[in-house]
Design brief:
With 172 residues, this protein is mainly beta. The chain has one domain: Rieske Iron-sulfur Protein, CATH 2.102.10. The chain has two helices and 13 strands; from the N terminus they run E-E-H-E-E-E-E-E-E-E-E-E-E-H-E. The longest helix is centred in the middle third of the chain and has 7 residues. The N and C termini lie far apart (45 Å).
């Protein structure tokens, strides 16, 4: 059972670190070496497989909405959808700027490689015209009811991902 009586007076709708995700500031409480290929607090989608790692800049993904990536010999599709507020920007969590939500999936279904483009709040595969949601579920079209295989990924800051996996390649 959840309770608001935690023994602490903290308002969980308020950010204790307003401005933390300002890309032009250094990450406090971090004592490691920052990989200078990106700004320390650039948001990235980090993906790791079989000892290989890639980071996709969220700022680029937000513009393109769909990126094809190859990792460990596998074709992946990386998606971005607007509508998720940054919990670290302003004093109020709900008032944070839109940093979006991401999904990463294997691009192969039934042995066929699919390519995708964004259309409104959905993603469409170019071969069949099937519409997919951010969770990789086909919501309409010939493949309705099917699911793409999700790939574990993390939405994080570059300093954290680059420190954890320094051999990461940047895409694109």
């Amino acid at each position: 059972m959840l309770s608001r009586d935690t023994g602490h007076s903290r308002d969980y709708g308020r950010n204790p670190y307003p401005g933390y995700d300002d890309v032009d500031t250094s990450p406090f409480l971090f004592e490691g070496e920052v990989d200078g290929r990106l700004a320390a607090k650039e948001r990235v989608v980090g993906i790791e497989s079989d000892g290989e790692a890639v980071a996709v800049r969220t700022s680029l993904l937000a513009k393109k909405r769909v990126l094809g990536v190859e990792l460990s010999g596998e074709a992946l599709t990386v998606w971005w959808k607007p509508g998720t507020a940054s919990a670290l920007e302003g004093a109020s969590v709900a008032a944070g700027r839109d940093v979006g939500a991401t999904g990463v999936f294997r691009s192969v279904l039934d042995g066929k490689k699919l390519t995708f483009h964004a259309d409104g709040d959905r993603f469409v595969d170019d071969a069949t015209g099937t519409r997919w949601d951010i969770f990789g579920r086909a919501t309409s079209g010939p493949l309705e009811g099917r699911r793409l295989e999700p790939v574990t990924h993390v939405d994080t800051f570059w300093f954290a991902w680059g420190s954890y996996l320094p051999h990461t390649s940047l895409e694109p």
